[in-house]
């Protein structure tokens, strides 16, 4: 998986983290999605959230995604903050893509984790 360029990770707690970056207009996943206005595909947002959660929390996922909501498109040059929270009691992690320059949530969801 191709990750965003120049991202900064801040682990705010043992069960919480933030990943900050500016979405570069040269990112491979933007090509052809869409010609008039490139958007970061939802599957990439989900893939990045899972990748970073696995890396930062040392977990494995259960390939069960009970909730995902896309509320605002992410476009090139948006300043993004991915917010991750691990909940071991509920056996899941939540993610939120926050667009800092618009003060708006772009997407959010839950992903089940293995025991």
TrEMBL record:
Task: Give the matching Gene3D superfamilies.
Answer: Hotdog Thioesterase
Q: What start and end residues bound the annotated signal peptide?
A: none
Q: Which residues form the ApeI dehydratase-like domain?
A: 11-109
Q: What sections of the sequence does the record tag as coiled-coil?
A: none
Query: Do you know which Pfam families this protein is assigned to?
Result: ApeI-like
Q: Sorted alphabetically, which SUPFAM superfamilies does this protein's record hold?
A: Thioesterase/thiol ester dehydrase-isomerase
Query: Under which name does UniProt file this protein?
Result: ApeI dehydratase-like domain-containing protein
Name the source organism: Succinivibrio faecicola
């Amino acid at each position: 998986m191709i990750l965003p360029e120049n991202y900064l990770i801040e682990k705010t707690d043992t069960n919480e983290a933030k990943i900050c970056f500016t979405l570069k207009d040269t990112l491979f996943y933007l090509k052809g999605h869409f010609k008039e206005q490139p958007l970061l595909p939802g599957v990439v947002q989900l893939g990045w959230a899972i990748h970073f959660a696995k890396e930062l929390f040392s977990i494995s996922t259960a390939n069960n995604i009970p909730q995902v909501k896309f509320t605002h498109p992410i476009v090139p040059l948006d300043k993004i903050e991915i917010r991750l929270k691990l909940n071991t009691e509920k056996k899941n992690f939540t993610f939120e893509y926050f667009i800092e320059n618009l003060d708006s949530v772009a997407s959010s969801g839950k992903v089940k984790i293995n025991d």
